[in-house]
Amino acid sequence: MSIHKENYKKITTHILQEMKNKGERIAMLTGYDYSTARILDEAGIDIILVGDSAANVMAGYDTTLPITLNEMIYHACSVARAVKRALVVVDLPFGTYQGDSKEALHSAIRIMKESGANAIKMEGGTEILESVERILSAGIPVMGHLGLTPQSINKFGTYIVRAQEQKEAEKLLNDAQLLASAGCFAVVLEKIPAKLAGEVSEKIPIPTIGIGAGNKVDGQVLVLHDMLGITQEFSPRFLRRYNNLFEGIKTSVLSYIGDVKNGDFPNDMEQY
Ligand code: KIV
User: For a Cys-Cys bond, which of 35, 57, 179, 182 suits 225, CB 3.0-4.6 Å?
Assistant: First the structure.
């Protein structure tokens, strides 16, 4: 049982702000289904992100682009049913908010109404500001996402570190300030230099959550399947693996197959 978990009954966006103000770090992980969300919540994670990385780790796509709003809502419902304490944030998937702010609001409302999640996340800065503002004005909390924004992979052409050049770094800082002034409650900073992430975290009042953005941010996020070692092929420098569940699950499955094949399962105690 984590001591930290006892401090807050239910995580809200206001508590996240208090945590930043007090210098208490925020722990976030992705989650996509009921059973793992129960474990994350029981362990005391602050935020569960129903990320569009579900497209990669749950559905096997190469990018996050194909996942649909209905599929995200399905994952979000499963997570929300499991969670008592964590804040549940859901990614607006590619194509549901970039074009038209009314459509963006409609997508965000569907997620909130149908899933019972607490907030949504959107990738981008000034380009999506109108949509962010419209969603916020409907009372829906928004988390921003800057730096390496995987929904733009076809524009970037590569998953390398973003904002290494001064011009892009300045735009990122400006975007973070715009999102904070608009009323976003937090912003994810993905795969950018640690120094820049630290500067952004100092300059904006809202919490920053880093992934591949160093240690001078207000919180950290990892993709659950990566940190548990279920995915094997993805090994960026920032990823710390806390387990090797690929091997763990495979070993269990091999034992099961062996037991079934040699007639050892079920035994006398395992039948009626
Ligand atoms: O979809 C996702 O998992 C994310 C995190 C990497 C921040 O956006």
Answer: 57
Closest among 37, 33, 143, 52 to 85, alpha carbons compared: 37
Enter the pTM of the model. Answer: 0.97
Residue 201 is inside which H or E element, if any?
helix 194-203
Q: Whose CA is nearest to atom 1 of ligand 1?
A: 51
Q: At what angle do helices 69-82 and 34-43 cross, to 10 degrees?
A: 50
DSSP state of 243: -
| Ligand 1, CB within 6 Å, residue ranges | 30, 49, 51-53, 91, 188, 190, 211, 221, 223
**Alpha carbons 160 and 157: distance in angstroms, whole number:** 9
Length of the chain: 272
Whole-Å CA distances, 195 to 15, 37, 61, 176, 179: 26, 33, 32, 15, 20
Residue 270: φ, ψ to 5°: -105, 25
Distance of CA 140 to the CA centre of its chain: 17
Per-residue burial over 145-161, b = 16 or more CB atoms within 10 Å of its CB, e = otherwise: bbbbbbbbbeeeeeeeb
